Amino acid sequence: MSVETQATAADSGAKATERFRANKSFTSEVTTERVNKLASRAIKALVDTVVEEKVTYEEYNALKAWLIQVGETGEWPLFLDVWIEHAVEEVANENRESSKGTIEGPYYVPNSPVQQTPGTLPMREDEPGTPLVLHGKVTSVDGNPLTGAKVEIWHADDLGFYSQFAPGIPEWNLRGTILTDDEGRYEIHTVQPAPYQIPTDGACGKLIDAAGWHAWRPAHLHLKVSAENHQLITTQLYFQAGEHLTDDIASAVKPELILDPQDVTDGSGREVGYDFVLATVN
Ligand code: DHB
Ligand code: FE
Q1: Closest approach atom of ligand 1 to CA 79
Q2: What is the span of the domain harbouring residue 174?
């Protein structure tokens, strides 16, 4: 058994919670009117469920115990990013004229090591998995190439684990920032990730089990693409014919985000192109 299989929901949860607190700033500028409206609607949705489904005290207490556990193990970032974030992303970007985005998920770490293109992501000497080259262009919606654009990428390893969230993996493993050349081109050398299973041994896992669901996300690369005076895109890329493209537990797959890598003729792995179009800042 590899050390990585010892990653627990409590581990990933605690680290994702810590990471959220470090990364995300939010002001308390949500107005009373807005909080009143949103909180009232959310509570009403639960109350309606209780009334319409005739929820029993047994079920109510099971929910209470479960919510307490989600908090204790730090799994709120996991729960929210799997079941809610996709809707927030759809609303946030519905009118944006750029390449498609999708959820960020809980495992982004800013300030990964920067390389001028072409770059190879930091990886272990014996990093398992098929070598993969992802390359393409970053342009503005008007077609202008964006020089010095930042392509940040992070993804799980061949066993489905993320560095900095599962134990025993070097800090920046399979995480990096590649800068585009003067034609807006980027090229990233990495390995193909495996499908990802959200931790099954914690509160989220308990819910999945109790509801008879599955815990899988399709194999994916996470990216943030940004350039001066342009709107940053947070997205993911998936793999044609991969498992769970149609039943992603996080509901974050879009047809535009599916790659179809081809074998490289010298047998050294696979390669695929993907271009990013960024909208200008309003
Ligand atoms: C979760 C993990 C991911 O890798 C991801 O992309 C989305 C959600 C999660 O465990 O919540
Ligand atoms: Fe992920």
Answers
A1: 11
A2: 92-278
Per the CB < 8 A criterion, the answer to whether 137 and 282 are in contact is no
pLDDT level of residue 6 (50, 70, 90 thresholds): low
Quote the number of domains for the chain.
Answer: 1
**Is 80 exceeded by the pLDDT of residue 28?**
no
Give residues (CB < 6 A) around ligand 1: 78, 81-82, 103, 105-107, 196, 198, 217, 250
pLDDT in tens, 204-225: 999 999 999 999 999 999 999 9
Report yes or no on 161 lying in a domain: yes
Residues 6+ apart with CB under 8 A from 103: 81, 85, 86, 89, 234, 236, 250, 252
- List, for residues 94-132, the tens digit of each pLDDT value: 999 999 999 999 999 999 999 999 999 999 999 999 999
Residue nearest to atom 9 of ligand 1 (CA): 78
Identity at 240, one-letter amino acid code: Q
Whether the CB-CB separation of 278 and 225 falls below 8 Å is answered with yes
- Kindly state whether residue 274 falls inside one of the protein's structural domains: yes
Is 78 part of any domain?
Answer: no
Residue 119, in any domain of the structure: yes
Q: Which residues surround ligand 2, an ion (CB under 5 A)?
A: 105
Answer with the residue of higher pLDDT: 156 or 267.
156
Tell me the sheet residues that pair with 215: none
Q: Cα angle vertex 59, ends 212, 106, to 5°?
A: 55
CATH of the domain at 171: 2.60.130.10
- Is 5 a residue whose pLDDT tops 60? no
Mutation to probe ligand 1, out of 84, 108, 198 (largest number of atoms < 8 A from CB): 198
